[in-house]
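Pasting two entries for a bug report.
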Amino acid sequence: MAAPMSNVDEIRDRVILGEFGVRNVHTTDYPGNYPGYDDTWDLEKFKKNFRIDIVNSDENMLEFDMIGIDAAIANAFRRILLAEVPTMAIEKVFVYNNTSIIQDEILAHRLGLVPIKADPRLFEYRNPEDQEGTEIDTIQLQLKVKCTRNPRAPKDSSDPKELYLNHMVYSGDIKWLPIGNQADVFADAKIGPVHGDILLAQLRPGQELDIVMHCVKGIGKDHAKFSPVATASYRLLPEITLLQTIEGEQAERLKRCFSPGVIEIQNVNGRKVAKVVNSRLDTCSREVLRHDDLKSLVKLGRVRDHFISLCQSLYILNPYIMLLVNLTHFNF
């Protein structure tokens, strides 16, 4: 069991989850509010206390902890990930031929939302006044597909997959057309759609698409298609404190009140005793407060300056790169 906190420290550092409400939700550590506490802003003190811990990561997901900051700064990190990290996306669509049933405007909008695999750090922002793109600010893509009948289709078949060729147009049909010296500069880069299985249109014999697209560098603040993340969220670190030893049948019920992995039953001198093993897995459902014999034995809270952040990439950029770009917005 953790050592008890003073009432002032609890108000300053913890959000308390009660049976009928949540307490201490507002930040109160501003200068002069608490006698004996120096809460004046100090950059060196902030740099000393603030840290980022990488908890879990893969090619499109990053879970990290931000410790020693206020909710306003944590939210600024989230908003920068959503709206300030640049990517490449389709901006201009030149439709030379479209005999499908999809209108040009709808098809152009759908193409614009296809994630493009290209490192935006290798390109410059395009001047809005420039009508023609160059190799340093534009990626050119082409979609050229024509549907025909399959001469080898069974006579009694009614399946479009057997009757027609190229009747399903996917993002994988989009091809990169290098501009200038891009073929040499990006010889090792696989520029094109991130996913090749995004359905764009369905065709029938005689229908075709002939489209050229220009990708430019932009940020999510200008349009959502430039946002590099699918999800960017944060939550406060849960804190579960057992006020006294809980054992036996009560320990079993306590374990069922929380998410799997939060509470474990340990054998102590032949007794089943409940222990908190990983509070960060808790969803803060407050289920334990429904049990009259348990609610007075457990204290639920959240650490005010410890944020569990989750960033899910669209595979356009590595999550580590997005985090580093994010940090460059702060002059720490």
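Entry 2 (this is the one that rendered wrong in the viewer):
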Amino acid sequence: SVEEFLNGARVVVSARTYADFTPQATFDIKKCDLHKLEEGPPLQAVLTREEGLQYYRTMQTIRRMELKADQLYKQKIIRGFCHLYDGQEACAVGIETGINLSDHLITAYRAHGYTLTRGGTVREIMAELTGRRGGIAKGKGGSMHMYTKHFYGGNGIVGAQVPLGAGVALACKYLGNNEICVCLYGDGAANQGQIFETYNMASLWKLPCIFICENNKYGMGTSVERAAASTDYYKRGDFIPGLRLDGMDVLCVREATKFAAEHCRSGKGPILMELQTYRYHGHSMSDPGVSYRTREEIQEVRSKSDPISMLKDRMLSNNMASVEELKEIDVEVRKEIEDAAQFATTDPEPPLDDLCNHIFYNDPPMEVRGTNPWTKLKSVS
């Protein structure tokens, strides 16, 4: 029949066009600024078509997920703290592709992107944001406290995740399993005393730890120039070698992370990375984000160095993908986000009986005192 013929023809066309794409290409990437290092990561990166499509899909998923969270927040469906990651997608995706899933990662409270790259699903993340039973932390963690295997979560206290990450790196060294820990913090946390204490211990004990400062230019509403006497965050490990790179270029981040991971695995101790990036939203949803910077500044970053547009342009100009194909990914991603949002708004909230569960791991059930001495709650691990 005509229909079968047309369908057959369509399959042939798509098969032919796929065969015509460039399977891989080499791109020039910006040189890193180095501290206490003889040489840095390579100045070229190879990208295969498959990797490109994968990076594009993941970054687009994070972007759409955060925009949907923004929408649900404004509808008062998501409440409380909510720090969005849009604009910084190349950091999460670049780091993740430079290490293994069996390596460890810990970050601050802008954690939705990492929860996804570490194996969480959009559905679990959205349901956690709305505090529902199907959330990744059973609806008890919310925006800042999501965890997966080898991902020690978002942490709500500024800078507190850095010493914890060094502890994970100490465990890696102690177990001798050749794994490393990536320890992330922002430019706002970079002046915390506990970070310098951690540098010292990590260096003394040669811990396999990559300290990464995601410098998005503002700590809450304070620009880095107003907050730090030295904004060369990659040099502030002093005796620890460091790299500063373009955090808006996923390939740049990937190559630098591979370089840093190799440094740690070879027993040379910790290394510092500073990713120069930018957030499009305010610090959190309660910050409109335009009182301390202009709308024009945000617009300029969007138009000149957006991580997703940059990857898309590279792929299209090297005939690694077609516009239609990327549009198709966009449609699929949008649908995935819509389905997740639907689930996150209809899934039930956890019942009160679950309130005290999981206080301890693998312990017999116990009683927990309620808000007054005569109410007793039950805790099951």
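Dev reply: Rendering is fixed now. As a check, the viewer should reflect this: Residues 49-74 form the longest helix (26 residues).
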